[in-house]
C-alpha cells in the first residue's frame, strides 16, 4: 500500500485516455514508441519519459504533438524492461527503486536510438526533451552527447543532476512555481542538500557557454506540461499551452 503521508515525488496527475498515433518497435535491446509525420522529415526528437515509464499515455501524447509539428518522435524504454514506478507503490521503497534507474546511466540507450534515427529514419538533426526523471536525463545528455543539437528539460528533478553545467548545446529548462519537489529558492521540508532553481541558474550563468534559458510558469505544479488536462483545469490552460508552445519553439529554433 502506498504511504499517503509521504507520497511519491511525482503524483500521476491526470492520466490521459489516449492510445497514440505511432507504433511500438524493437530497437536493438530496447523497445520504443515511434511516431512519424506523414511527410518526409529529417528532424527528430528523443522523448525521455518520467518515472511512470515509456508507456504512459501522456508521454505518448507529447510525442505525437511533436510529430504534428513535423518531427519524427521516439520515446524509448530507458528502464530497459524494468518496471516503471506505480502510484500504488510504497514511497518508502522509492530510493531503492531509483538506484537501479539512474538518469545519468542512459548513454548506451541514447547511442542505440541515435543510430536507429539516423539509419532507419533518415534523421539528420536530432533534439531531446524529457519530463521529471527524463528532464534530469536531458541535462546529462546536454553535457555528454555532441550529436544531439538541443534539449528541453521539463521540471527535471534538480537533485538528480550531476555536478556539471558546461552544456554542449542550447538547453531550455521549464519549471513550475508551485512545484513541491523542486524548490525555487528555499528547500523547506525537503533534504537540505536539494539544489534550488535559483542556484541552478547561478551555476549555469557561471559555467555555461551556450544559450540556455530557465523559465518558471506561475501557479503551476510539477508535471503541468504533460500531466495536467487543460480542459478540466481552465485556470492552468494558458500555462500548459504556453509551456508546450515554448518547447516547440525552442526545438524549431535549434533543430
UniProtKB/TrEMBL annotation:
<keyword id="KW-0963">Cytoplasm</keyword>
<dbReference type="GO" id="GO:0005829">
    <property type="term" value="C:cytosol"/>
</dbReference>
<comment type="similarity">
    <text>Belongs to the dienelactone hydrolase family.</text>
</comment>
<dbReference type="InterPro" id="IPR029058">
    <property type="entry name" value="AB_hydrolase_fold"/>
</dbReference>
<feature type="domain" description="Dienelactone hydrolase">
    <location>
        <begin position="30"/>
        <end position="254"/>
    </location>
</feature>
<dbReference type="GO" id="GO:0016787">
    <property type="term" value="F:hydrolase activity"/>
</dbReference>
<dbReference type="Pfam" id="PF01738">
    <property type="entry name" value="DLH"/>
</dbReference>
<protein>
    <recommendedName>
        <fullName>Carboxymethylenebutenolidase homolog</fullName>
    </recommendedName>
</protein>
<dbReference type="InterPro" id="IPR042946">
    <property type="entry name" value="CMBL"/>
</dbReference>
<dbReference type="InterPro" id="IPR002925">
    <property type="entry name" value="Dienelactn_hydro"/>
</dbReference>
Amino acid at each position: 500500500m502506498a504511504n499517503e503521508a509521504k507520497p511519491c515525488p511525482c503524483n500521476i496527475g491526470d492520466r490521459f485516455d489516449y492510445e497514440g498515433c505511432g507504433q511500438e518497435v524493437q530497437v536493438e535491446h530496447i523497445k520504443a514508441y515511434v511516431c512519424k509525420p506523414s511527410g518526409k522529415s529529417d528532424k527528430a526528437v528523443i522523448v525521455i519519459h518520467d518515472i511512470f515509464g515509456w508507456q504512459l499515455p501522456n508521454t505518448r501524447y507529447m510525442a505525437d504533438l511533436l510529430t504534428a509539428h513535423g518531427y519524427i518522435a521516439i520515446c524509448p524504454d530507458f528502464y530497459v524492461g524494468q518496471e516503471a514506478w506505480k502510484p500504488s507503490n510504497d514511497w518508502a521503497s522509492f530510493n531503492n527503486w531509483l538506484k537501479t534507474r539512474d538518469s545519468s546511466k542512459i548513454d548506451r540507450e541514447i547511442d542505440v536510438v541515435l543510430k536507429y534515427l539516423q539509419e532507419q529514419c533518415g534523421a539528420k538533426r536530432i533534439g531531446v526533451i524529457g519530463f521529471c526523471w527524463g528532464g534530469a536525463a536531458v541535462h546529462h545528455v546536454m553535457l555528454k552527447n555532441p550529436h544531439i543539437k538541443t534539449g528541453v528539460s521539463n521540471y527535471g528533478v534538480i537533485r538528480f543532476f550531476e555536478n556539471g553545467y558546461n552544456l554542449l548545446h542550447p538547453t531550455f529548462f521549464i519549471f513550475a512555481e508551485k512545484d513541491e519537489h523542486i524548490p525555487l529558492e528555499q528547500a523547506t521540508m525537503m533534504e537540505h542538500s536539494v539544489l534550488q532553481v535559483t542556484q541552478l541558474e547561478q551555476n549555469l550563468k557561471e559555467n555555461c557557454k551556450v544559450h540556455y534559458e530557465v523559465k518558471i510558469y506561475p501557479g503551476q505544479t510539477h508535471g503541468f506540461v504533460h500531466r495536467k488536462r487543460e480542459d478540466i483545469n481552465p485556470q492552468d490552460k494558458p500555462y500548459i499551452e504556453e509551456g508546450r508552445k515554448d518547447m516547440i519553439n525552442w526545438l524549431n529554433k535549434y533543430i
